[in-house]
Amino acid sequence: MGFQAWRGTFDGILLERAKALGVEVIHPCRALRPLINGEKVIGVATSKGDYRSRFVVDAAGGQHWLGKKLGLKINFFSSRLIAYYGYVEGNCLIENQRPAIIADQLGWTWRAKIQPYLYQWTRLNFSEQRLASDWKPEAFQGMVTKYKTRSADVTWRLVSPCAGRGYFLVGDAAGVLDPASSHGVLKAIMSGIMAGHLIVQLVNQDAELLIETYSQWLTNWFEHDLTELNKMYRNHPHPPQFITL
């Protein structure tokens, strides 16, 4: 079921590595709007002033900040899906404590141990039925709720084009699938690496070609994962109505 990383620790490792490589981190700071010259993105206006650059990389997640500001098309491939997630603390009494994803009539539940005595769960209903604020998986009943239950919009969607003159979209800023696709963190990191690699290459190569290369690469990856997710949900005991049959 993959590696279970504590997000705060993992984010801290990435941030410190970026600083060590010379990245200037400006925090707190809020992006207000992209700076545009003609049809090219040339920077970002922020709460701390304007920052100009050859390329803007939007890694701000599934709100699609830059895509919406530029009026890019967002293509949808499922009905609206909301994933709820939370944490519980204590001694889990189930014998098998390995990560598990459990299907049921309404959707699925994922659970995993992520730290000593700390467990995470994620719940996805195929309908838009809201989860009760005190809900937790049956296996975690009697354990102490650690943090407030949160939610995320995981409706299947892809922004098009995910790269253009002066910009790249990476991770969920480019496309979103629900957590059952299983490698959202990997896709975020790899798309960021690819965008950085291509930006370096732009010094000596044709910009339009490299932008198209990135867009096609990320679109192909999304479509592959979309196909695999449809296949998986066809085998669900109660398949959602939105899957491609």
From TrEMBL:
One Pfam family this sequence matches: Trp_halogenase
Domain of life the protein comes from: Bacteria
Signal sequence range: none
Coiled coil: none
InterPro entries hit by this protein: FAD/NAD-bd_sf (IPR036188), Flavin_halogenase (IPR006905), Geranylgeranyl_reductase (IPR050407)
Alphabetized Gene3D superfamilies for the sequence: FAD/NAD(P)-binding domain
One example GO MF annotation: monooxygenase activity
Protein name: Similar to Dehydrogenases (Flavoproteins)
